[in-house]
Design brief:
3 helices, 5% helix, single chain, 432 residues, disordered N terminus, Porin_O/P, Porin, mainly beta, globular
Length: 432
């Protein structure tokens, strides 16, 4: 499936003239289903101030076939080019069909992003990626009580479940990319009201070949004791549990730079593994033009065989965003909703600050021999400062400054080695 230049041009022009309050494009009514067309294009640039590791080289974390990997201090590319068809009806049915023809997938990687990784990257193929492909039935016509079948984001992670087009920062927090289970095929049941929800799901692999695999289940509960315009308090708990693929598991993280080819913290391949369980707690507070949110994750990996201890790791983030132009947020289905600018011509300005931390260590090193007992994947602490400008109903411009502080055990150095790069990131986004 390819997105032709003519098709994209028509879509862009149509979106430019779409009404501000209804960004998606209505296409037709077929078989009682009202069909609309949505899209998202994100172009990004990264500028690296490297410390030890060249963040844009193949090195030992990838191959020459890896995307980017040119050894330069800059990298530019299309991050997403999503095309989505949606249908409402007949009756209480809804459906979604989404695809990203620009997405690259690693042939030898399982669960690399948003699912935990299991194998070393070998090659990268540009072949596209399936997004949401599912059908939903609203029981009794209630949007908060439904059954869903197909591929969808699993019930975990406040940040992962929030819309990509409205993320507060260019890269999701490292813990979200490391621990959150994103889209998988399965079946889900959810029941709730405007202030609370309980969702359970059973899932398998991703539709796109060679990506997320491993059967499992997920549970998420949310409660918003305060849910008023400009005044929201939300808390939630989630848990996912799934099989590791080929009895091998791996966790690693980019330094909050999606175009980087290197990871500064990496557990390496952990063999003889059975299942992994990941629990998380989340919180959100909105007061007028201010929003604070945070999440904490803990992963527990079960192993078998003599001499193999279970592996534990954890991490979290906290962020704050201020809408300088005065807009506030909404709340729907257990996630915050970013509103359109009150003055479309002037746009909406945001400034934000985030701190996220990830600890992949569960072992010790011998300073005499350099040998490792357990797993020493490293620790990573990152500060991100960002500015966003939402212009009219279809455009967003973002600029982030990222300060990375990592420490990882080195067998050669027989001790911990620091690597503290800085990164400037920019994004231009068009959506309809």
């Amino acid at each position: 499936m390819k997105l032709s230049r003519s098709t994209l041009s028509v879509a862009l022009l149509a979106a430019l003239f779409a009404p501000a309050a209804h960004a998606e494009i209505a296409l037709d009514v077929i078989g009682g289903s009202e069909i609309s067309f949505e899209g998202l294009v994100q172009a990004e640039g990264n500028w690296y101030d490297n410390d030890l590791v060249d963040l844009n080289s193949a090195g030992t974390g990838g191959t020459a076939a890896s995307a980017g990997a040119n050894g330069k201090d800059t990298e530019f590319g299309i991050r997403r080019a999503e095309i989505i068809l949606k249908g409402k009806g007949p009756g209480n049915f809804e459906w979604t069909l989404g695809y990203d023809p620009s997405a690259q997938k690693s042939v030898a990687v399982v669960n690399e992003s948003n699912n935990g990784a299991t194998n070393v990257t070998s090659t990268v193929n540009s072949g596209g990626k399936w997004l949401d492909v599912n059908a939903k039935y609203k029981i009794g016509g209630n949007a908060n009580h439904y059954v869903q079948v197909g591929q969808y984001k699993q019930p975990n992670s406040l940040e992962e479940l929030s819309s990509t087009r409205f993320n507060d920062f260019i890269s999701k927090a490292a813990v979200t990319n490391t621990y959150a289970v994103a889209r998988r095929t399965g079946v889900a049941y959810s029941y709730g009201d405007v202030n609370w929800s309980v969702t359970g799901a059973y899932f398998g692999r991703e539709l796109t070949r060679n990506l997320g695999q491993g059967q499992g289940f997920g549970l998420r509960g949310t409660w918003a004791p305060i849910n008023e315009t400009g005044n929201i308090l939300h808390v939630g708990l989630a848990y996912v549990d799934y099989d590791t693929d080929a009895d091998t598991f791996r966790l690693r993280s980019r330094p909050d730079a999606d175009l980087a080819t290197q990871r500064l913290v990496d557990s390496g391949d952990i063999r003889d593994t059975d299942r992994v369980g990941i629990g998380s707690a989340e919180g959100l507070w909105v007061h007028g033009p201010f929003k604070v949110q945070g999440e904490y994750y803990q992963a527990n990996l079960k192993r078998y065989g003599a001499g193999h201890d279970d592996y534990k790791s954890d991490g979290g983030y906290i962020s704050g965003v201020w809408n300088v132009t005065g807009e506030t947020w909404g709340y729907k289905a257990g996630v915050p909703v970013t509103n359109l600018p009150e003055d479309p011509g002037a746009g909406m300005w945001q400034v934000g600050l985030r701190y996220d931390t990830l600890d992949l260590n569960d072992g010790s090193g011998n300073p005499t021999t350099g040998a490792v007992a357990g797993v020493l994947g490293g620790k990573q602490n990152i500060w991100t400062a960002g500015v966003n400008w939402y212009w009219r109903s279809n455009f967003k411009f973002a600029l982030n400054y990222v300060m990375v502080d990592t420490t990882k055990w080195s067998t050669v150095a027989r001790g911990e080695v620091d690597d503290n790069p800085n990164i400037v990131e920019g994004r231009i986004q068009f959506y309809w």
